[in-house]
Amino acid sequence: MSSAGTRGLPHVDAVTPAVLVLSGPVSRGELPRLCDEVRALLEAGRAGVVVCDVGGLGPPGLAVVDLLARLELTARRAGGRIRLRDPDPALHALLDLVGLRFETEGQPEQREPPLGVEEAVEAGDAAV
């Protein structure tokens, strides 16, 4: 049994994740609506990821941490996850402090050094 090979590159369907822009201080009353939006974006898309643009949220606090934790929980229950875009360094620090880890756009994978970083070699080190 044989099959004819196809010419050229195989078809690649690039999937772009949906983006949810979070701006201004978000009140607790808006939380159900935002969770519904995350759920709807995951159901409508094929990427399994919703990018949350958090650049306009303002100064981070525990309310922002609560919001992101609930959005992540909603996404996980719907079979997806969220990814942060443009987070403030203070937000990163606060999320680390409370033990929450979020994937961030442009972030190198774990155990992968950022581009342009080389390990230093000490004189006298044995060659491997």
Automatic annotation (TrEMBL):
Gene3D superfamilies: STAS domain. It comes from Streptomyces griseicoloratus. This is STAS domain-containing protein. It comes from the Bacteria. InterPro entries: MlaB-like_STAS, STAS_dom_sf. SUPFAM superfamilies: SpoIIaa-like. Residues 20-100 form the MlaB-like STAS domain. Residues 104-128 are annotated as: Disordered. The lineage of its organism: Bacteria, Bacillati, Actinomycetota, Actinomycetes, Kitasatosporales.
